[in-house]
Amino acid sequence: MEIMALGPTLRVMIDGDAARVYRQGDQVKGRVILALEEEEDIKMLKVNFMGTCITRTTRPLYVAGNDADASQSRRGYEERLELFDIVQILASRCTLASKKHIWNFDFKFPDLTQSRCSRWTYGSKYMKGPHPLPPSFHLCNNNLGGKAIVSYHIQAKLVRTGTKDINKVTQILAYHPSPMSAFEPKVTSRVLYAQTWKPVKKDRTIINRILTKVAGRVSTANAFPRIVPTLYYVEKIETGQHMPLHLSLANARDEFGVRNDNQPQCTLDSLSITISTFTTSMCGQPLTQPEDVTVKHVTCISRHDINQLVPFSRPTKLTTNFRLVDDVECVPTFRTCFTLLLDTITRRYSMTVVVGIKFQDQKFTIKSTTALEILPRIPREMMMTMGGIEENEEGDVDPLPLYVEREADVSFEPAPNYEMLYSSIPTSSSSMSTCLEGMNPRRERRDGAGI
């Protein structure tokens, strides 16, 4: 009986935790293991440390004279670009014996991409300068077969002499960029002149009109202000940081900007904050290849009947502990640029704030949409080495109350005393010994053997 030899077994082993999230500058160490059942002539054995950007999508394919099946026929598009490719040759044009061979590799995550785009493919104005590495990313959009992938992996490739079979083994690595220093959010103000609001004057009687003319302009300004809102927000924020948000209302009719405390004040009636996510993936040139855009809106805060006083010319705090959750959806803002006109994958965010204000018995709404750039958060271990955890991060957390022993409540029945309970059950010594002998068969065999 002839036994056929098994083919070579190729494996890639990464040192450390398999679920580790790498940062720029981190070392990736591991081993490539090749087990041979017989002597093999090796043409090439190499290991690649790669970063790739892949976009896929489909579009309906219409053929003349085949309108009935036009909805079922689709054309596929795919674009694959390399962020970087670091190669290490392990063996070349040699013969290896039938045993297990081990090679070590040591790579380092680069800080920037390595542009390898051809000007014949992407035009003469291709992007020469590299850009920061985007985070690991995987998204399936609404189009059939549409995907946007940013992947980093270690791949071992074996090519043997005399055969067309190629052995490949890939190990995926998770990557997340991180800033080298702590970031403090900066508050930006935006005056919303286009949303200036004036209360609607109601029909007044002749007596009220006469009293208003006698009182002069001061009473008119107090009763009917001209409200100009100003929104204070942040344009850049890290995940986990508090997002300060304030609103200020100014009365344009106040003389020389002097605030009058005697005039009627506004109250905060409702608040809604929505964060929108925009993901764009493109296959090839922007003028000839399709582009998929995925939009997602998440309502973070929705409050009604707040009834909070909003004085004029004073910034009023709208949020107290508004933070972005560091999860798989909160990917830092990024773009994979390869030409001046081509962004293969982009991820951006915007924040929409809708504030309902009440002035006496009238209501008006203030709405503002601003761009929001989400920055990668500094890992906790890096934060501790840089000088400790942020004070505001720990200060906003309410400590647990101290333990206070409560007095026994006589209304509840106390737990039974099991020693007294079982001691009160009448049992004979013979029945108890029989029960113990049945529960210990090994001791019964030893007694029978006379040991």
UniProtKB/TrEMBL annotation:
<dbReference type="Pfam" id="PF00339">
    <property type="entry name" value="Arrestin_N"/>
</dbReference>
<feature type="region of interest" description="Disordered">
    <location>
        <begin position="432"/>
        <end position="451"/>
    </location>
</feature>
<dbReference type="InterPro" id="IPR014752">
    <property type="entry name" value="Arrestin-like_C"/>
</dbReference>
<dbReference type="InterPro" id="IPR011021">
    <property type="entry name" value="Arrestin-like_N"/>
</dbReference>
<feature type="compositionally biased region" description="Basic and acidic residues">
    <location>
        <begin position="440"/>
        <end position="451"/>
    </location>
</feature>
<dbReference type="InterPro" id="IPR014756">
    <property type="entry name" value="Ig_E-set"/>
</dbReference>
<feature type="domain" description="Arrestin-like N-terminal">
    <location>
        <begin position="13"/>
        <end position="160"/>
    </location>
</feature>
<protein>
    <recommendedName>
        <fullName>Arrestin-like N-terminal domain-containing protein</fullName>
    </recommendedName>
</protein>
